[in-house]
Design a protein that fits this description.
7% of the residues lie in helices and 45% in strands. By secondary structure, the chain is mainly beta. The longest helix is centred in the N-terminal third of the chain and has 16 residues, at 2-17. It holds the Pfam family 3keto-disac_hyd.
Length: 293
């Protein structure tokens, strides 16, 4: 009987130490085995990359590493205080992405920076990203690493970048209320401005309204509200951007882009994620619906 009790206690401890605990209504997406995720790796991009398929020293085209290879252990999970923490080394461009397709949800997670950088971003801000409404194959973007999607940028607050910035990935498009900065070269989210069409030959980047990142080494809490083609980017409790009319251009025609997988980018910087939780929503919460009026 004593041995049975020990075995039972060990089993309970194992279960509680391999997945994030979640409040009622929330589903944890991270465990020590990455059982709800797959991986994709493209290339170790070099300085001078211009969007073309990389070649070897003889000029022969290189093929991407591909799905679920995890070369150089770029994606790994460590246990800290009994909870799983995802480390993305950034050494090779790519992503870890959910096996499941999600629509109408509230996603939240915590993220902090490591210390490592890799070519070609040794002199650039640390960078990663949450790509949502992700559809199709990986490798269709400029960096040949990610799916068609919308990006909630995860970046150091330097050189015009910030947590919560928006990027169109591949042929995605959306409307964002934004105005150009004083130098007229960059859009910044402004809830009082007129909507701007992102993508489709227009701007593909919009800055968040402000920088609310905590100091490096501390955990930032990021939230994404994504409902019926509308999304809210939240950084440490601050709404920094609202995306409307999410879509994609397919064969020259605009189509809605309102559901898909969730990708976390590997982009030449070491980054850690934990407490990745998601819950379904029936509608845009009232406190955020005002951003679309």
């Amino acid at each position: 009987m004593k041995n049975a009790r020990i075995l039972l206690a060990s089993a309970v401890l194992l279960l509680t130490s391999t997945a994030s605990t979640a409040p009622k209504g929330w589903e944890p997406l991270l465990d020590k085995n990455l059982s709800k995720w797959q991986t994709y790796q493209s290339y170790r991009h070099q300085l001078g990359y211009k969007g073309q398929q990389p070649t070897d020293a003889q000029g022969k085209l290189l093929t991407p590493i591909g799905y679920n290879k995890n070369e150089a252990n770029v994606f790994s999970v460590m246990m800290q205080a009994g909870e799983p923490v995802l480390r993305i080394s950034g050494e090779i461009y790519g992503c870890v992405f959910t096996k499941q397709d999600f629509t109408n949800y509230h996603l939240k997670l915590k993220v902090k920076w490591g210390t490592k950088k890799w070519v070609p971003r040794l002199d650039e801000p640390l960078d990663s990203g949450i790509l949502y409404n992700s559809q199709g194959k990986c490798g269709v973007d400029y960096w040949r690493s990610w799916m068609l999607s919308q990006e909630f940028q995860v970046s150091e607050g330097q050189r015009g970048n910030a947590m919560g910035d928006f990027w169109c990935i591949a042929n995605s498009t959306a409307n964002i209320k934004a105005a150009y900065n004083k130098t007229k070269d960059t859009l910044r989210y402004n809830p009082k401005a007129a909507p701007v069409t992102m993508g489709r030959g227009g701007p593909g980047f919009c800055q968040a309204s402000g920088n609310y990142e905590v100091p490096n080494g501390q955990w930032n809490e990021l939230e994404l509200i994504n409902v019926n083609g509308r999304s809210i980017h939240i950084v440490n409790g601050h709404v920094v951007l609202a995306v409307d009319n999410s879509g994609a251009v397919v064969n020259g025609q605009r189509q809605p882009l309102t559901h898909g997988k969730i990708q976390l980018q590997s982009e030449a910087a070491e980054v850690f994620y934990k407490d990745i939780l998601i819950k379904p929503l029936d509608a845009m919460p009232t406190q955020y619906a005002t951003y679309f009026k």
